[in-house]
Design a protein that fits this description.
16 helices, five-stranded antiparallel sheet, alpha+beta
């Protein structure tokens, strides 16, 4: 179906609009779409009338692929000039299939029809306005929802910002806690390592040097250690800060500066007159309630950190204990060494038999007091030589050594072979000191017999050099250590001596090394002894003893005592043993 209207005047346009609305209603076009069609058509027709001329409106209904049809309105110009001015206008709306009903719709020619069309247009306008009001209500609702959503988003952003700030604060607190924990761990590690370094030495001068090297420059710019003499206050050799003197007298740490230190457990003092611009921390060195000195430190920075000050006070306390231990050790070592040397025997002079002894105390540690040697005559004229080693070190070992030496001399007065003497010493030591043990070697020389009798109890074997330069280790089966809780009888062993022979008795400090044991050391001793000539030993046995020790000890830290006893049978021993009046003239001279 197609309808056409020619439009020249406003009245023509109004009729065309009303007819279009009525036909659209007849075709079942929804009111909203119908209003859109007629409103658009009216606006276009108004523009056409303004331009002038004659215009034609074609309204045609056509089927569509869907179940609804299409209603198409087309406006074209009937004048050539109009066609040039404006291209055709068209608009299409969907509508149900209602062609038959539309054919019965009359044209709007009379006023009644026009009025009816106008009222219908108002109805359509009311429908549009109603739809518009619904849309406005919907928009208002959406705006309210959007506002509430925006408020929620803003609140959420505020909460997220607060959560982010709290998280940043937590991260900062965690980093600060980690830094503090790392600093505390570093201080504790330093304190443990420094304590180990200080207590590793038993020399108080070395401890002072180590203390300075540990603190400078990380914890102090300078360090001064003022040691008192034996715990008694002495006049300082150089001027000391007043705070150091106060610390020594009061036993409390002192802080001397032009500002309060605020350090825990530390008293504030005025600045030092000698160093007014330098803060000084003076910490007393003490042990067992005895003042040993004062440690004075200048800070590496502007001032002291409280935790560093606490750590330094604890380190100073440990340094005081290390110094006290070193002084006690040195005191006991000196006593033990003095006692040891006082008890060492002056070797007896025997015609034809030369003796040379050497005793060297340990150079490190309190490893002195256990090694000893002795030489004395028995009533039958025999010469007893002995060398031994008491387990343990220090003053107690030196005392036990002296008791064994005295007991051996007492037993030897009644005679007895070396094995018998060692057996008696074993019983004596077991009953006297059940937890103390000793090793020993006894060798007996008789002026009228070339036979050497010897016995050993847990001791390194004697080494014998024969006149031809051969060296033999007298390693016949020895007895067990003296004092162990077993019953034993120590056997005697004999070897024939010829003039020019040399017997070396020694302790394990001469031949034993931690990394290799004792056997290689005995081999080195035998090799060194084999390099001497009998003539050299005859001429200067003391000098030979020194020459023997030097190569054996040059590579040793000497952390144990060393004893060496050389017994040399002179190459002309028989002639030297004769009475002076029967000796050859050259021997008498």
């Amino acid at each position: 179906m197609t309808r056409t209207w020619d439009i020249t005047t406003v009245t023509d346009a109004a009729r065309a609009r009303i007819d279009t609305a009525r036909l659209a209603a007849a075709y079942g076009v929804p009111g909203l779409e119908r209003t859109r069609l007629t409103a658009a058509l009216s606006a276009h027709l108004h523009q056409c009338l303004v331009e002038g001329g004659t215009w034609r409106l074609d309204l045609e209904a056509a089927p569509a692929p869907s179940e609804d049809g299409l209603l198409r309105a087309v406006v074209t110009s009937c004048d050539d000039t109009g066609a040039e001015r404006r291209p055709p206008w068209h608009m299409t709306v969907a509508c149900p299939q209602g062609g038959d009903a539309a054919d019965t719709v009359p044209a709007a020619d009379d006023p009644e029809t026009l009025a009816e069309g106008l009222l219908g247009a108002d109805e359509d306008t009311a429908l549009v306005l109603e739809k518009l009001a619904e849309q406005e209500d919907l928009v208002t609702s959406h705006r309210e929802e959007l506002h509430q959503t925006n408020q929620g988003v803003l609140a959420l952003h505020a909460e997220l910002d607060a959560a982010g700030q709290a998280q940043r604060e937590l991260f900062a607190a965690e980093r600060a806690a980690r830094r503090e924990a790392e600093t505390a761990r570093r201080r504790l590690t330093f304190l443990a390592d420094a304590s180990a370094v200080l207590t590793a030495s038993l020399n108080h001068d070395e401890i002072v040097r180590r203390l300075r090297s540990l603190l400078v420059p990380e914890y102090a710019r300078s360090v001064d250690v003022w040691l008192l003499d034996g715990g008694e206050e002495e006049l300082p050799s150089v001027p000391r800060p007043a705070a150091a003197v106060t610390a020594a007298r009061s036993g409390r740490p002192q802080y001397a500066a032009d500002h309060p230190g605020g350090l825990p457990g530390v008293d504030d003092r005025p600045p030092s007159t000698a160093y007014p611009s330098v803060p000084l921390l003076c910490i007393p060195l003490s042990a067992r309630r005895t003042a040993l000195g004062v440690l004075t430190l200048a800070p590496s920075g502007a001032r002291w950190d409280a935790d560093d000050a606490v750590m330094l006070i604890e380190l100073t306390r440990r340094a005081g204990i290390a110094l006290d231990n070193a002084r006690r050790f040195e005191h006991n070592r000196d006593i033990a060494e003095t006692l040891q040397r006082a008890l060492l025997t002056d070797l007896p002079a025997t015609p034809g038999l030369q003796l040379a002894a050497r005793y060297l105390p340990a150079t490190s540690g309190l490893n002195i007091g256990g090694d000893w040697y002795d030489a004395f005559r028995q009533p039958d004229g025999s010469l007893i030589t002995v060398i031994g080693d008491v387990t343990g070190h220090g003053l107690h070992a030196a005392v036990m050594m002296s008791q064994l030496r005295t007991a051996l001399r007492a037993y030897a007065v009644d005679g007895g072979t070396p094995g018998q003497l060692l057996t008696r010493l074993h019983i004596f030591l077991h009953h006297l000191q059940p937890d103390l043990y000793a090793t020993a070697v006894i060798a007996r020389f008789h002026p009228d017999d070339p036979t050497l009798t010897w016995a050993a109890a847990g001791h390194p074997p004697p080494v014998l050099r024969t006149p031809d330069g051969q060296v033999h280790t007298l390693d016949a089966k020895p007895g067990a250590m003296l004092g162990i809780p077993v019953e034993q009888r120590i056997r005697d062993h004999t070897v024939t001596l010829t003039p020019g022979s040399t017997l070396a008795l020694y302790t394990d400090g001469l031949v034993e090394r931690r990394a290799e044991g004792i056997d290689p050391g005995i081999g080195r001793l035998a090799a060194a002894l084999g390099t001497f000539r009998s003539a050299d030993l005859d001429a200067d046995l003391d000098g030979s003893a020194d020459l023997l020790l030097n190569p054996l000890l040059k590579d040793s830290e000497r952390d144990d005592d060393v004893c060496l006893l050389l017994c040399h049978l002179h190459s002309r021993a028989a002639e030297m043993a004769r009475p002076p009046q029967s000796r050859p003239a050259e021997l008498s001279r």
